Amino acid sequence: MNILVVEDDARVGDFLLRGLRAEGYAVQLARTGPEGLALARADDRALLILDLMLPGMSGMEVCQTLRAEGFQVPVLMLSAMNQTEDKVNGLRLGADDYLTKPFAFEELLARIEALLRRGRQQRPRAATLQVADLQLDRERMHVSRAGRTVVLTAKELAFLELLMSAPGRVYSRERILANVWGTNEDPLTNVVDVYVRRLRSKIDEGHALTLLKTVRGFGYKLDAEPS
């Protein structure tokens, strides 16, 4: 998932950059309003995190301009101003959510996930996921690689569907546990690592191209890029 952060405060911007990348998001940082507007126009984004007070052009002006040009990317606005009027103005100008500084990083992550989930619900859900020659038929919950059926358990299917829904995105162990097991704590020691080994043996063993990869210090991803 590609996120653009527009934040002029170096400390906050760098904190968001490091934290979101550690959670597996691809993040780009802009320091001014005009720079943020140009980057938002240049690339397809999953989400825009936009500070209200920016040099050159305010966050509200950036948001209003993008909406007027037809951009539908979800916008999470950040601000140290917590007056109801400020929040209402931000939402009326096109922001999807508004978070007041200072904020807890876990709350930011929860709001990001809610906005991304809402965006996915508004788009038709793909019936089939495919990465290279690996296919997952969501209707029948049937997995195949190179035309051969791969038999998976329910948890293995849920894990694989999560990874295939965003090829190339790195998922931390915590995010995998939350999405597949519905918990923030490991119910068994190294359960994620155990399931990674199981999936590898079933989808990668015997194939020249390895799809399930470990990103040391961050987590796991599934993509077709050569290691």
TrEMBL record:
Gene3D superfamilies (alphabetical): 3.40.50.2300, 6.10.250.690, Winged helix-like DNA-binding domain superfamily/Winged helix DNA-binding domain
Short name of any one Pfam family annotated for the protein: Trans_reg_C
Modified residues (4-aspartylphosphate): D51
Ranges for domain Response regulatory: 2-116
Keyword Cytoplasm recorded: no
Top-level taxon in the UniProt lineage: Bacteria
Keywords: DNA-binding, Phosphoprotein, Transcription, Transcription regulation, Two-component regulatory system
Keyword set includes Amino-acid biosynthesis: no
Residues of the DNA-binding region: 126-224
Residues in OmpR/PhoB-type domain copies: 126-224
InterPro entries linked: CheY-like_superfamily, OmpR/PhoB-type_DNA-bd, Sig_transdc_resp-reg_C-effctor, Sig_transdc_resp-reg_receiver, WalR-like, WH-like_DNA-bd_sf
Membrane-spanning parts: none
Name the record gives this protein: Response regulator transcription factor
Protein source organism: Ideonella azotifigens
